[in-house]
UniProtKB/TrEMBL annotation:
Gene: pth
Organism for this UniProt entry: Candidatus Chisholmbacteria bacterium RIFCSPHIGHO2_01_FULL_52_32
Keyword terms of this UniProt record: Cytoplasm, Hydrolase, RNA-binding, tRNA-binding
CDD domains for the chain: PTH (cd00462)
Function, in words: Catalyzes the release of premature peptidyl moieties from peptidyl-tRNA molecules trapped in stalled 50S ribosomal subunits, and thus maintains levels of free tRNAs and 50S ribosomes. Hydrolyzes ribosome-free peptidyl-tRNAs (with 1 or more amino acids incorporated), which drop off the ribosome during protein synthesis, or as a result of ribosome stalling.
Highest taxon above the source species: Bacteria
Residue numbers annotated as active site: 19
Cited Pfam families: Pept_tRNA_hydro
Enzyme Commission number, as recorded: 3.1.1.29
Positions marked as site (Stabilizes the basic form of H active site to accept a proton): 89
Catalytic reaction annotation: an N-acyl-L-alpha-aminoacyl-tRNA + H2O = an N-acyl-L-amino acid + a tRNA + H(+)
Main location: cytoplasm
Sites marked Discriminates between blocked and unblocked aminoacyl-tRNA: 9
Protein name as it appears in the record: Peptidyl-tRNA hydrolase
Length: 181
């Protein structure tokens, strides 16, 4: 079993925010499949969708408690860390870029910190979606990371996020065997 977790915050208040880009990518991945409807699984505190041996999940805990839901899913489905893929926003990567890396993610991301604590390891796949688009220089006047990730994308940024989401779905969906070019 492969587990693909998109990180984000539940509720309409957070739709379209930078922190919810993990939800967006997982939703787009599911949308490429037929009958791709997420269902609530209260026991695992997540919206889930399964196709063959791939389970897509959107934890319904808030971001900072993502590890609770991910830990429950990993234990129940007996997912090895090498088959765990976490899709998340990343301030270390410019908007419009992404990286797929094993065991390497941003150091300051509370959702990931929660998962690391729950699993006792950083050793899983990170699908890192770049969201950094703040002006350089005059650091003291820049929006803090905590506030920035909860802001919505501008129209221009939404176009870039859609492009990168399409690229990730094609590449990552191909890796999982869910999407063919």
């Amino acid at each position: 079993m492969k587990l693909v977790v998109g990180l984000g915050n539940p509720g309409g208040k957070y739709v379209g925010t930078r922190h919810n880009v993990g939800f967006l990518v997982v939703e787009e991945l599911a949308a490429t499949l037929q009958n791709s409807k997420f269902k609530i699984n209260e026991k695992y505190m997540s919206l889930v969708f399964q196709v063959d041996d791939v389970l897509l999940a959107k934890p319904q805990t808030f971001m900072n408690r993502s590890g609770v839901a991910v830990g429950k899913l990993v234990r129940f489905y007996k997912v090895s860390k090498s088959n765990l893929y976490v899709v998340h926003d990343d301030l270390d990567i410019p908007l419009g870029k992404y990286k797929i890396q094993f065991g390497k993610g941003p150091k300051v991301h509370q959702g990931l910190q929660s998962i690391y604590r729950e699993l006792g390891s950083e050793g899983f796949w990170h699908i890192r979606i770049g969201i950094e688009h703040r002006a350089k220089g005059m650091e003291e006047q820049r929006t803090t990371g905590e506030a920035y990730v909860l802001q919505r994308f501008t129209e221009e940024e939404q176009a870039l996020i859609q492009q990168v989401t399409d690229q990730v779905v094609l590449e990552f969906g191909g890796i999982l065997g869910l999407v063919s070019e």
